[in-house]
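Sat 14:20. Reprocessing the chain from the morning session after the first attempt stalled halfway. Input below, unchanged.
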Amino acid sequence: MSLRADVLVVNDHLLDAQATLVAFEQVAPRARVLHLLDGNEALEYLFSTGLFAGRAPILPRLVVLSLEMKAVSGLCVLDLIRAHPQTRDVPVVLVSLEGNPRAYRRHDGFDANAYLTMPCDFHRYCAVIAGCVSRWLPWALRPVGGITGRRAAELKYSLKERTQLASATDDVGFLIEGQTG
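Finished this time. Tokens:
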């Protein structure tokens, strides 16, 4: 089985997952993005077990993980990712729909690389995803001059704008922390 992804989106809320998938399509069309429905599927994918037994053990370059999942919580998945030497260095962005995901920060090496509260405005959400992509998947970004017309006006982010948008932590609830990735 050769199911290879650059980005894993792990979210059991289908509308939120769809918003994330569309945001990645808009800002990083070259990235292969795979949506998994829960923490169990994510762990099976990462460790090539269960449904994904026999999959080549190629890790994603980024995991976007919902905190609010029913079966296995995002924090539990994060703990297992950080505990295993094979997956320890995979960048993980924890996404929360409500509240402050920074409240889940830990200082024991089991922390996420970034925290995100989903904004209501889709354009702002795309800007936040662009910040994540520019940090961990810069090769996948949409080329600035690669599209034309109205879509170009909507989607054209210069590197300077991406940096400004990603660093606007108070405005969109986005925080990149100290771990490298």
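Residues 146-181 have pLDDT under 50 and may be disordered.
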